[in-house]
Structure formats: C-alpha cells, structure tokens
Design a protein that fits this description.
25 strands; binds zinc ion; 14 helices; about 575 residues; seven-stranded mixed sheet; Metallo-beta-lactamase, Chain A; outer membrane lipoprotein receptor (LolB), chain A; 2 domains; 13-stranded antiparallel sheet
C-alpha cells in the first residue's frame, strides 16, 4: 500500500513537471518518430499539449443506452438492456476516478426487478486501488433518493410475510445493517479494468501517451490513422485518429473475457465540442467485438471544476484481502425425490435490499450417468459440481448438460462442460450461438476448454426431447410465450412430478419482486399435461410445491400485484 501511495505521488509529480516544464514531457519516447509526430498533432487538435496536460479535473455527465448480453429473447436479438444516466469524475492530476451510473431496465421481464439499478453505488479508483462507496444526492441534481432502505418498504406494500404467503417466500433474513454500506475495497483485476476504463477518453489517453507512453506501429486504415500505445503502467491500447481533423476517433484494446474469450473492446468518440480551450467528445460508443455495449450522450463536459478529495479513505487503503477459496456448494435434495439435487454457491447472509446470486444448477441421476440442467458458474463452479456429483454418486459421470436458454449468466460453465466431455442439449435456436461460444479463442485468459480441447457434441431440441433409461425419464419442452426468452426449455421428470426451470418462473421474494412469469408457466403446464407436484426454479430461492405455485399465480393475476408492478415501475422512474 505504501508503494501504491508513493506511485500516485510520483504520477502527480510527473504531471506537475509536465505542466511546468512543457518539453520535459517528451521524456520516455523518441522525439521525431512518425508516431510522436502524430501524437503531437492529436494534442494540437485537442487544444494544445500544454492545455491537455494542464487539465486538473474533468466531469462528464449524460445519459444513453446500455446493452445486456444476459437478457436476450434469442441469441440474435438486438440488445435491449438499460436506459442509463451517468456521471464520471476524473481527478487527472492524482490518477483518480469516480463513476456513478443509474440503470433503468428496458427489458419487459425485469421492469420491476430493482429500483434504478446501481444508483446507490459509486465505483471508484485511486491509483491502483478500486473501491465502491455509497452515492449521495450530489451525483446528478435530479437524482434524490431519500429512501435509504430501498426495497424493504415494498414488503409491506404487497403483503410479504403475512400467513397467506407461501412459506418459501418468507425465508429472507430479518437482521441487516440499516443505511448505506461503508466504502469497500475491491481486490482482484477490477482495479486494472477501471484503470483501462479511465483511459477510454481522448483526454485521459492522450495525456497518458504524452506522459511517457511508448508509441509504435503508425499505420493508415481507410480515413483514419492508428498508433499503438503502451502506458508506463504497461496498459496496451490502440488509438485511431481522424486523418483530416487529427481528433481521436476511437481507442481499443484486447481483453480476455471469461465467456467470449479474446475480444476487442472499443470506445468510439464523436460530436466534439469546445470546452475551456479543449475539444471534448459528446458521444461515447462502446462495443465488444460485434456486440453493442453502450451508446452514451454527454450533456455536460466540465473542465477544472472543484471535485473534492477523491482519495480512497483509510479504511479502504488498509483493507486486507480474504484468501481466495473454491466455491462452497450447497446441494439440496429436491423434496420427495431420490437422485435430484438443486445445487448453488453458498451466499452467506444477503441483505434484503440486495439480490442474492442464487443462480443454481440441477443435478439429475439416471441409471448409468448424471444430467446437469444449466451451469451458472465458470470453470471453478463446474469442477466443484463435478466433485459434488462424484461424492453423491461415485460411479456416475455427468455426461449431459441441458442449457435452458441463451444467457451467459446461466450458461457460464458450458465450455467447462464440453472440456469435461459433456454433451450439450439445447433448443434449436441456441445451437449456432453456443457452437460459436465453444469455438471461440481464449488465448489471453486460457480456460479449461482451451487447455484441454474436446470435440463439441451438441443436440438440438425442437418442440420436445426425451432423455430416458430404466431409472428416470426427463422430458424437455420448449416453453412457449415466455417473457424473458423465446428459446427457453424446461425439464420435467414424470417419476418425481418435478418441473425444473431457469428464469421461466421465479419465486417472488423481497429481493426478486418480479415474477417471470407464473401465468405463462401455468399455460405451459396445462398445454403439456404435466402433473407437477414440485417446482425447482433455478434463479430463485426455494423449491415450492405446486400448491404454493398456484398461490403465487393467483397473486400475480390479482389487481394488488398489477398495482404493485405499476407502483414499482413509477418508483424506478422517479429514482432514475
Ligand atoms: Zn436468470
């Protein structure tokens, strides 16, 4: 930590020298190379080298759209995601940044999932220290969230905890600290990611390049010129500038995404405006390979305003990292069955105003092998599930993996499944997308499959599909009319009268007030003539009986619930 503080001071000192000394800034890169000539021209286009290096603070505020790869009706659907408001505060002299963002879901199944997601937190960076801290009313003037306890007040609105509610909905903790959480340090690669994110702006990137960045590879592509930049911290980025105006057009970098593998992350800049002697972009567009990520419009660029002290508080600087441990799994036998388990990662205590990450998998035993339904975690999760299955049934390997719908959040471990020799089984419209995911290169962050390549076995499910042997029959059905995915399949075991689903229907809890969605699930149960006794919803708490499901169905069809959803929608709007 001492080292980090020192390096921050050194950066501050270097910037001060740069400001005072003008030409000193050329230290660290060869003068007169084609690359440095281009960089100088870019600095001139942005307002001059001295002006660029003299900026102390920058505040960027605005709004836009953000895509969500985890919420797609089909693998080819355009990303819907969220409507966003944001404020980014940069203390350039000290290498600090604070990012506040408020998300309002545009995805129908999630409208009332959460009040203005993310609005309560600020993501911060101080040198090499990443942390979060509670947001306050200073973020955006129109934002005024006076309800500190968030979702907890909803419980009384719609009667959670009353005797009429199913028992499985009453299981949330009652004791939790009131008020906002204190600032929290985030260990791991987040600090590097935030440092790279901080460089996704012409001003921050050109400053980093001028302050000792190594430049190489000047080249021309269509109407733009490109150079590669390695910052003094070793971050590698490519800057593209407009051939005529010399204004930065984009910055890109290669990243090793756990799910998508090697990807190009790119931020494009447009609509430059004049602010305090600088040219700054009013539009920021980001992509990951072919996927749209964000399209942000800047309402205000503010230079050198008073932003206060953005340093990490002492409690954050002095925080120590818990040693990493393998995921501890909870394996709960599905009531009334043998050889069926709901398995998820132990969450510890979850505050009622936070959504538990209850993404689970379902393990099902057949006479000579086991079947998994969804894999919400990557390599380590899949390895832990395989170990757990070995413990439960030593002589039955998991050889089949059913993938319910196209959602990286519930299929994160599909590559690990292929590496372990599992056959993938999914709805036909997901086959091309999952084949692409299995075939992608993971050279930057190699995973189990890239280290141990295995051939892909993938089975396409049309309207229905049966996995059957002398011990158990599993019927897979395309779920029709689902509000979250058009490519959803659910699994039914007639022997056990158990229906397994992910996202096709969730138990209503205080943390997950949306219900996606029991009416269409009921329609599918009727259409398929399923004699369900027990539900295993993999993205929510509990394993309710059919009677409990019918109670929730009645509730979701009630005017009370319709008013609740409306009220929640208005609440999200007013907090956004
Ligand atoms: Zn889900």
């Amino acid at each position: 930590m001492t080292q980090m503080r020192t390096s921050t001071l050194l950066v501050a000192a270097a910037v001060t020298i740069a400001v005072i000394g003008g030409a000193c800034v050329l230290r660290g890169r060869a003068q007169g190379t084609p690359e440095s000539q281009l960089l100088d021209e870019v600095a001139v286009a942005l307002g001059g080298k001295a002006r660029v290096l003299g900026v102390r603070t920058l505040v960027v505020e605005g709004g836009g759209r953000q895509g969500d790869l985890n919420a797609l009706m089909t693998a080819e659907s355009p990303l819907v995601g969220w409507e966003v408001r944001f404020k980014r505060t940069y203390d350039l002299a000290n290498g600090r940044m604070r990012v506040w963002q408020s998300n309002r879901s545009l995805f129908p199944a999630r409208f009332d999932l959460q009040p203005a997601g993310g609005a309560r937190l600020v993501n911060a960076l101080d040198g090499d220290i990443a942390f979060t801290l509670p947001a306050d009313g200073s973020m955006i003037a129109a934002w005024a969230d006076s309800n500190a306890d968030g979702l907890t007040s909803i419980g009384s609105t719609w009667g959670i905890g009353t005797p009429e509610r199913p028992a499985s909905m009453e299981a949330w903790p009652t004791k939790y600290p009131s008020g906002p959480q204190p600032p929290q340090r985030i260990f791991g690669p987040v600090a590097v990611t935030r440092r790279l994110d901080m460089l996704q702006h012409p001003l921050t990137l050109v400053r980093a390049a001028l302050n000792g960045g190594k430049l190489s590879g000047r080249r021309t592509e269509a109407n733009r010129e490109l150079i590669d930049i390695v910052t003094p911290k070793g971050d590698k980025l490519t800057l593209a500038v407009d051939k005529t105006t010399k204004l930065p057009e984009s910055v890109s970098r290669i990243d090793g995404n756990a799910y998508w593998g090697d990807v190009v992350l790119k931020t494009s800049f447009a609509s430059y405006e004049d602010v305090s002697g600088l040219k700054l972009p009013r539009r920021l567009l980001t992509t990951m390979d072919r996927f749209f990520q964000t399209d942000f419009y800047v309402t205000w660029n503010t230079v050198d305003s008073e932003v206060g002290d953005l340093a990490a508080p002492a409690s954050v600087v002095n925080a120590t990292q818990n040693p990493p441990r393998p995921p501890a799994l909870v394996a709960e036998q599905v009531p009334g069955t043998t050889g069926m388990w709901k398995i998820w990662v132990d969450q510890g205590e979850v505050r009622p105003d936070q959504r538990p990450d209850t993404n689970a998998t379902c393990l099902m035993e057949l006479s000579d092998h086991m079947v998994l339904f969804d894999v919400p975690g990557p390599d380590a999760f899949v390895q832990a599930v395989i170990a757990k299955a070995k413990e439960l049934r030593p002589n039955k390997p998991i050889t089949q993996l059913v993938l319910s719908h196209f959602d990286p959040g519930h299929t994160a471990g599909l590559r690990a499944g292929v590496a372990a020799g599992m056959e993938l089984i999914t709805y036909r419209a997901n086959v091309a997308a999952f084949t692409d995911v299995v075939g992608r290169k993971h050279t930057i962050n190699p995973d189990m499959l890239s280290k141990n390549p295995q051939p892909l076995k993938i089975t396409s499910v049309d309207d229905s599909y049966v996995i059957k042997d002398s011990m158990r029959e599993l019927q897979l059905y395309h779920k029709i009319g689902d509000g979250e995915s058009a490519t959803m399949i659910v699994a039914y075991s007639p022997r056990d009268r158990v229906l397994v689903n992910t996202d096709a229907w969730n138990v209503i809890t205080q943390q997950t007030p949306n219900d996606s969605d029991s009416p269409s699930m009921y329609d599918n149960i009727v259409k398929r003539h399923l004699d369900v006794a027990r539900h295993v919803p993999l993205h929510s708490l509990g394993m309710p009986t059919q009677a409990e499901f019918m109670k929730q169905l009645a509730y979701t069809r009630s005017m009370e619930y319709q008013f609740f959803r409306l009220a929640q929608r208005l609440r999200v709007d007013s907090q956004f």
